[in-house]
């Protein structure tokens, strides 16, 4: 099966139903599923006319907009592999993805084009949209195997170089079918999409659940707490996906407004970072809804979810999703007993095929088809799984992943920096914030170092503080002991 077959339940089966609302210069525009189908057929023919065929990569370096969806559907229909790039990435980060994925082109807009490294073919999204209008809107069917890659999603790498998780048509299909079944998503829903489409939360969960269920989607360019109330009030969604930072911000809304939003809502889902239990409780009190927390990764899509019916347990991520096997193992790969913490391993039709052109990294992550998540967890005696931190040093800020090593490498290139260690400091709103501990000499200048980070890294990776230390605490074997560094608190 290919993804188009699932999407056709809506693109063809519900051709005349309202599918999408989005912002345009002259107000809110809307499209039916049939219109979306035709638009993406035109784009598919345009891509083919430019020489793209099954297996070619195409980078999307784009904010949320209707053309992202046209291009995504066109790629899925023609077997072109979508490589999304975070719009907050700067040239250094984009250059790595482009060099690794070797796309035929990067589709982007005027604002982001300067961050694409020279020598890369750049296609302007507005020009593409105009050119697509000259192509026929009839469907062309490409033979695609379910095991073909649909997307390569770059995840931050522990070595500082990010790796591309190869997600197949079957991976996305398994995930989508699970979401529809487990979260009871139907064509009656109204889904408010505020998450970026360049991550699997917004794309694999949001867009796919929308297209497979045939519900109506309101696409926002991004989540903005100042615009969110008007979006909720005018669109009146029944379904909402967010990261914890978004729920923390929604708690700022006035009581009456929160109650009104809650009354019309069917389901709020949270993921991509741990949802603090006190946020779940405060949200329940204010909006009258228990947020459903689930656990996934770019490499695996969704693994574990709290139940739709039954107890949505605060602090826990719930039970393995259908078809997904979960094992909690100790360092010797033996299952731990309930209530004991071990590393979470998963296996299932949702787990990616491996890392793009990285057999070493793939071999490290998989053992007998089991994928090692790097997350620690425990299972209660009634089967609920609770995550207990990470084996690796990942920092999650506002739902965006950060590997300290990548920032440390930039800092070590700065004048006067002898040693640099980046840690995640707790933050009420964003979950964690990166802070840098530096051993420096007199030539070090904090402003210069910060500016260098801002130039070569996404804004969420720029350290919020530079803390000077005389030395970095290490074990006898030279391993950095981060827990011995002085704590830093955001205000
Ligand atoms: C944030 N910024 C954006 C942006 N999101 N810019 C453009 N487009 C976006 N989508 C920038 C802002 O301009 C600002 O830049 C900085 O980030 C902080 O923004 P903010 O609005 O002040 O922050 P905040 O209120 O904290 O909200 C940020 C947020 C955002 C929650 C809206 O972090 C976000 O959308 N996070 C979602 C991440 C996500 O989808 N993760 C899923 C990964 S998939 P500056 O320059 O002023 O600092 C995954 C698997 C799974 O993990 O299981 O889901």
Give a quick summary of the entry.
With 491 residues, the protein is of the alpha/beta class. The chain folds into two domains: 3-379, Rossmann fold, CATH 3.40.50.12780; 394-484, 2-Layer Sandwich (GMP Synthetase, Chain A, domain 3). It has helices spanning 3-11, 33-49, 66-78, 91-101, 125-132, 169-182, 201-213, 228-235, 244-250, 255-264, 277-287, 359-365, 404-412, 446-456; strands at residues 18-24, 27-32, 57-61, 81-84, 105-108, 122-124, 149-155, 163-168, 190-193, 216-219, 239-242, 267-270, 292-297, 301-305, 319-320, 325-329, 342-347, 366-367, 370-379, 385-390, 395-397, 400-402, 417-427, 431-440, 466-468.
What does this structure look like?
With 491 residues, the protein is α/β, with parallel strands linked by helices. The protein has two domains: 3-379, ANL, N-terminal domain (Rossmann fold); 394-484, ANL, C-terminal domain (GMP Synthetase, Chain A, domain 3). Helices cover 30% and strands 26% of the residues. It has 14 helices and 25 strands. The chain has helices spanning 3-11, 33-49, 66-78, 91-101, 125-132, 169-182, 201-213, 228-235, 244-250, 255-264, 277-287, 359-365, 404-412, 446-456; strands spanning 18-24, 27-32, 57-61, 81-84, 105-108, 122-124, 149-155, 163-168, 190-193, 216-219, 239-242, 267-270, 292-297, 301-305, 319-320, 325-329, 342-347, 366-367, 370-379, 385-390, 395-397, 400-402, 417-427, 431-440, 466-468. The strands form six sheets. The protein has a nine-stranded mixed beta sheet, sandwiched between helices. Strands 16, 17, 18, 19 and 20 form a five-stranded antiparallel beta sheet that branches. Strands 4-3-5-6 form a four-stranded parallel beta sheet. A hairpin with a 2-residue loop joins strand 18 (366-367) and strand 19. It is globular. The protein starts with a helix and ends in a 23-residue tail after the last strand. The model has no long low-confidence stretch (mean pLDDT 96). Malonyl-coenzyme A binds at residues 63, 87-88, 195-196, 199-202, 222-223, 243, 245-246, 249, 271-272, 296-298, 398-400, 429-430, 459-460. Malonyl-coenzyme A (MLC) is lined by residues 63, 87-88, 195-196, 199-202, 222-223, 243, 245-246, 249, 271-272, 296-298, 398-400, 429-430, 459-460.
């Amino acid at each position: 099966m290919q993804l188009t077959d699932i999407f056709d339940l809506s693109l063809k089966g519900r051709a005349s139903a309202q599918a999408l609302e989005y912002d345009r210069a002259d107000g809110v525009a809307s499209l039916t599923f049939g219109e979306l189908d035709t638009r993406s057929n035109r784009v598919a023919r345009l891509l083919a006319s430019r020489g793209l065929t099954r297996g070619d990569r195409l980078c999307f370096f784009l904010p949320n907009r209707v053309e992202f969806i046209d291009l995504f559907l066109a790629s899925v229909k023609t077997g072109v592999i979508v490589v999304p790039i975070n719009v907050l990435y700067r040239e250094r980060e984009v250059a790595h993805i482009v060099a690794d994925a070797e796309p035929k082109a990067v589709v982007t807009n005027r604002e982001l084009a300067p961050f694409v490294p020279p020598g890369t073919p750049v296609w302007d999204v507005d020009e593409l949209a105009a050119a697509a209008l000259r192509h026929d809107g009839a469907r062309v069917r490409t033979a695609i195997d379910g095991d073909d890659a649909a997307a390569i999603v770059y995840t931050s790498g522990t070595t500082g170089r990010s790796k591309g998780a190869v997600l197949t048509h079957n991976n996305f299909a398994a995930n989508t079918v699970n979401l529809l079944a487990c979260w009871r998503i139907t064509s009656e829903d109204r889904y408010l999409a505020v998450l970026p489409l360049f991550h699997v939360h917004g794309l694999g969960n949001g867009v796919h659940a929308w297209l497979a269920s045939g519900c109506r989607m309101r696409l926002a360019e991004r989540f903005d707490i100042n615009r969110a109330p008007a979006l909720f009030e005018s669109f009146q969604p029944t379904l909402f996906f967010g990261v914890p930072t978004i729920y923390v911000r929604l708690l700022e809304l006035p009581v009456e407004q929160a109650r009104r939003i809650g009354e019309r809502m069917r389901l709020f889902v949270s993921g991509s970072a741990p949802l603090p239990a006190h946020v779940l409780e405060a949200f329940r009190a204010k909006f009258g809804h228990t947020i459903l927390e689930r656990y996934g990764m770019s490499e695996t899509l969704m693994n574990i979810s709290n139940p739709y019916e039954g107890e949505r347990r605060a602090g826990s991520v719930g039970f393995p999703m259908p078809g997904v096997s979960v094992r909690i193992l100790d360092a010797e790969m033996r299952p731990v007993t309930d209530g004991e913490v071990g590393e979470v391993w998963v296996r299932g039709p949702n787990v990616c095929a491996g890392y793009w052109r990285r057999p070493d990294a793939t071999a490290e992550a998989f053992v007998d088809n089991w994928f090692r998540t790097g997350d620690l967890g425990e299972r209660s005696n009634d089967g609920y799984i609770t995550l207990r931190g990470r084996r690796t040093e990942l920092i999650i800020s506002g739902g965006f992943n950060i590997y300290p090593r990548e920032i440390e490498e930039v800092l070590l290139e700065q004048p006067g920096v002898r040693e640099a260690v980046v840690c995640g400091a707790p933050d009420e709103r964003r979950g964690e914030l990166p802070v840098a501990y530096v051993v420096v000499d007199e030539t070090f200048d904090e402003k210069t170092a910060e500016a260098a980070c801002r130039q070569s890294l996404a804004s969420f990776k720029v350290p919020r503080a530079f803390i000077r230390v005389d030395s970095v605490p290490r074990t006898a074997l030279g391993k950095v002991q981060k827990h011995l560094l002085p704590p830093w608190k955001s205000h």
